[in-house]
Write a structure and sequence with these properties.
alpha/beta; 9 strands; binds ligand C2E; binds calcium ion; EAL domain-containing protein
């Protein structure tokens, strides 16, 4: 931003300029980064609240940038979505995660995030089927996570590939649930089997006493899920007390730093094996 004649509110903002330049550089570097193998995946366990066992893991992509070190997905996924690179990048993540999942003994499934841009990719269903088949992973062991906001009010065209994947046996989870204001009628038409309650709603369960409004929200979501035959996963579980409360409230699965931060695939393998003992 440049300062424009005499308007004292339009002064130069060097920090905003620096951020824009940084975004521009990252965007330009994305295609080569994929070719050069600079992306890697960390896995975060999904824990069954009922008995504390590891039921699977979510794949979370990171970028090992040659100059900047590890860059988080919040910084580059939006850029990849804007340029369309998210389609090949998302396919790469799916391929890696599915292959990785065949090596886990204890864990039963892998969750992979799907960008709304991938839903309009005509190759999505075919590529997913091929990736599963090549790896020899049953479709039931894959869960695709799509944000609620991407599906609220979605056209049938967008939902069709999801329905097909669902019929194949792939699970679909509604990610960041609670942030997109879906209603009961809207939810019924979505081919989803799981709600992932956004971290912003489990934060208030951590405090002592728990935030009564957040407790009511979790109770409401659990009731809604039961009515529709869906399971509930809670994100952002950071303490033992929070996990215990969420279990008592009827949530099925939990994910968060209390159990493990996202880490290399070997670590998940160890967690799953330790769990089996
Ligand atoms: P998300 O799908 O909601 O993933 C959960 C995020 O919460 C992850 O951030 C995870 O590291 C973080 N998290 C997990 N447990 C805790 C906790 O106890 N406390 C707190 N404060 N945070 C926790 P991450 O890895 O930075 O990913 C950010 C977002 O980037 C993801 O949010 C997802 O929307 C997106 N993303 C990551 N990988 C992919 C991918 O392969 N494809 C697409 N399209 N998006 C991805
Ligand atoms: Ca997710
Ligand atoms: Ca989420
Ligand atoms: Ca255990």
């Amino acid at each position: 931003a440049k300062s424009a004649g005499g308007n004292r509110f339009e002064f130069a903002d060097p920090e905003a300029d620096a951020r824009a330049i940084s975004r521009h550089r990252l965007t330009n570097a994305l295609p080569a980064a994929l070719d050069n193998g600079e992306f890697f995946i960390e896995y975060q366990p999904l824990v069954r609240l009922e008995d504390g066992s590891v039921g699977g893991a979510e794949a979370l992509v990171r970028w090992l940038h040659p100059q900047q070190g590890v860059v988080g997905p919040d910084r580059f996924i939006p850029l990849a979505e804007r340029t369309g690179l998210i389609v090949p990048l998302g396919r790469w993540v799916l391929e890696q995660a599915v292959r990785q999942a065949t090596e886990w003994e204890g864990a039963t499934r892998v969750n992979v995030n799907l960008s709304p841009c991938q839903l309009t990719d005509p190759g999505l269903v075919r590529d997913t089927a091929r990736i599963l088949e090549d790896a020899g992973l049953p479709p039931q062991a894959l869960c695709l996570e799509i944000t609620e906001t991407a599906l609220v009010g979605a056209e049938d065209e967008v939902l069709r590939p999801l329905r097909t994947l669902c019929e194949m046996g792939v699970d679909i989870a509604l990610d960041d649930f609670g942030t997109g204001y879906s209603n009961l009628a809207g939810l019924r038409r979505l081919p989803v089997s799981e709600l992932k309650l956004d971290r912003s709603f489990t934060r208030g369960i951590r405090t002592s006493p728990a935030d009564p409004v957040d407790v009511k929200i979790v109770e409401g979501v659990v009731r809604l899920a039961r009515t529709l035959g869906l399971s509930v996963t809670v994100e952002g579980v950071e303490t033992a007390a929070q996990a215990e409360r969420l279990r008592k409230l009827g949530c099925d699965t939990a994910q968060g730093w209390y159990y493990a931060r996202p880490g290399p695939p070997e670590r998940l393998h160890q967690l799953a094996l330790a769990d089996a003992c």
